[in-house]
Amino acid sequence: MANNRIERVAIIGAGGRVGGAFANSLLATGKHTVTAISRAGSKSTLPAGIKKAEVDYDDESSIVAALKGQQFVAITLSIFAAEDTHSKIVKAAAKAGVPYIMPNIYGGDFRNKALFQDALHGKAFEMIADIEASGSDYIGLVCGFWYEWSLALGEPWYGFDIKNKKATFIDEGTVKINTSTWDQCGRALAGLLSLPESGASPCVADWKNKPVYIKSFRVSQRDMLDSLNRVMGTSDKDWTIAHEPSGDRYKRGLEEMKAGNRAGFATAMYTRNFFPHDSGDYEKTTGVVNDVLGLPKEDLDESTKRAVEMVESGYNPFA
Question: What pTM value is reported for the model?
Answer without folding.
Answer: 0.95
